[in-house]
Amino acid sequence: MSERSDWSALRERRMAEPGAAEAYAATRLAYELGCTVRALREERGWSQRRLAEAAEMTQSAVARFEAGGTVPTLPVLERLANALGAELVVQLRTPAA
């Protein structure tokens, strides 16, 4: 039980550091985008190499992206969407009350 409380205390300290919340949000977004691309790729029965060829990327770049290891640019997202036959939608919304 002390291990869990130690982890929680560490997380609280880290999240209180300047910029931590923003970095966490960016990492979460990159992970969610990667999961979405992976799901679309797998629905089509494609390998990472097949997607990389269609999007004019390397297989390792696709792997990093799917793992949430990179925050993509809009042109990269457009290439992936086009390769997958998907529509890229970028929105800014006010938070729900």
From TrEMBL:
Q: Which InterPro entries match?
A: Cro/C1-type_HTH, Lambda_DNA-bd_dom_sf, TransReg_Diox_bact_type
An example Gene Ontology CC term for this record: cytosol
State the superkingdom.
Bacteria
Chain ranges of the HTH cro/C1-type domain: 37-91
- Keyword terms of this UniProt record: DNA-binding
Q: What SUPFAM superfamilies does the record point to? A: lambda repressor-like DNA-binding domains (SSF47413)
Question: Which GO terms label this protein's molecular function in UniProt?
Answer: DNA binding; DNA-binding transcription factor activity
This chain belongs to which protein, by name?
Answer: XRE family transcriptional regulator
